[in-house]
Specification:
- InterPro entries: GlycerAld/Erythrose_P_DH, GlycerAld_3-P_DH_AS, GlycerAld_3-P_DH_cat, GlycerAld_3-P_DH_NAD(P)-bd, NAD(P)-bd_dom_sf.
- With 327 residues, this protein is of the alpha/beta class.
- Helices cover 24% and strands 25% of the residues.
- It folds into two domains: 8-124 and 300-307, Rossmann fold (3-Layer(aba) Sandwich), CATH 3.40.50.720; 126-292, Dihydrodipicolinate Reductase, domain 2 (2-Layer Sandwich), CATH 3.30.360.
- The strands form four sheets. Strands 10, 11, 12, 13, 14, 15, 16 and 17 form an eight-stranded mixed beta sheet that branches. The protein has a four-stranded parallel beta sheet with strand order 6-7-9-8.
- A hairpin with a 4-residue loop joins strand 3 and strand 4 (37-40).
- The longest helix has 17 residues, at 126-142.
- 34% of the residues are buried.
Length: 327
């Protein structure tokens, strides 16, 4: 990152301490300006300043075989992202946006087994992670002939706060005052994660004046008829007792609104009461998702796969506990 003034590190620590959406950081934070580090709850964060990703020497900081998580949005293709791999100490790159070209779009729970030894991979997008697990299980059970994904998405920092010039269509209009129709790459990214649905999905998005939590509406034409109760019962079971229970959640409540899903750890939450299905092949599903927190959990899960590190889940079985106790 680039240094932005004398108080840069202090300001970044303050942004970590206070979050307008997710609230205050629960823990201690201290700053060492001389060493460019932030200590957060005992975890040391080394801040590295550079004008170019290829100019960073990670080994100078004792960092070896680093996985660089590129959250800048500046590059989405191999040519741009390979700049990170020129740096000493960097071994792989994980992009937090849909990757272009041959870059794999990985949705944890769906195709993380295909990570392999690729040096550059993508964690797709928040929307892709919300819809792909649901699309996968629906396709497995009922088949999907084709579908359209309409995303009602909170505004993001690439939009303007007030009307001003913007290189993208419509995004120049004030984000806090307008609903803005815009393109989304979620459908194409979903097809990369689910090749069996290639050519069957379309997508669009509407940015709305809320700061977080979005909603994906899936208009699907199934390959066999399904009733509302059948679809909902299946999705509820999947959320409770399947390999995708960390990705898919399910709720039935007439009272929930977007802020109720703030901080969710799941990639997406199916709103069962909103499901539309009349026993024909046409089904409409509504999937809530915290486009910050839920997606971040998915990115972290991919990082775990890339490093081979999986923290112990508690409670543990007696046999595992005994093995741990024996040291």
């Amino acid at each position: 990152m680039k240094r932005r003034g004398a108080n840069d590190l202090v300001k970044r620590a303050s942004l970590l301490r206070r979050d307008s959406i997710h609230g205050p950081f629960e823990g201690t934070i201290s700053v060492d300006v001389e060493s460019d580090t932030i200590l957060a709850n005992g975890t040391l964060i080394q801040v590295v300043y550079s004008d170019s990703p290829s100019a960073i020497d990670y080994e100078e900081y004792g960092i070896h075989d680093a996985i660089v998580v590129d959250t800048t949005g500046r590059w989405r293709d191999s040519d741009g992202l390979e700049q990170h791999l020129v740096s000493r100490g960097a071994s792989r790159v994980l992009l937090t946006a849909p990757g272009a070209g041959a870059i794999k779009n990985i949705v944890h729970g769906i195709n993380h087994d295909s990570l392999g030894d690729d040096r550059i991979v993508s964690a797709a997008s928040c929307t892709t992670n919300a819809i792909v697990p649901v699309l996968k299980v629906i396709a497995d059970r009922f088949g999907v002939a084709h579908g359209h994904v309409e995303t009602v998405h909170s505004f993001t920092n690439d939009q303007n706060l007030v009307d001003n010039f913007h290189s993208a269509d419509r995004r120049g209009r004030a984000a806090g005052l307008n609903m803005v129709i815009t393109a989304t790459g979620a459908a194409r990214a979903a097809e990369k994660a689910l090749p069996e649905l290639a050519g069957r999905l379309s997508g669009n998005a509407v940015r709305v004046p809320t700061p977080n939590v979005s909603l994906a509406i899936l208009h699907l034409t199934l390959e066999r008829p399904a009733t509302r109760d059948e679809v909902n019962a299946y999705l509820r079971d999947v959320s409770l007792a399947s390999e995708l229970r960390r990705q898919i959640d399910y709720i039935e409540s007439p009272e929930v609104v977007s802020t109720d899903f703030l901080g969710t750890r799941r990639a997406g939450v199916v709103d069962g009461l909103a499901t539309i299905a009349d026993g024909s092949e046409h089904v409409v599903l509504y999937v809530w998702y915290d486009n910050e927190s839920g997606y971040s959990r998915q990115v972290f899960r991919i990082l775990q796969e890339m490093t081979g590190g999986h923290p112990m889940s508690l409670p543990v079985s007696s046999s595992v506990a005994a093995a741990v106790g024996r040291g």
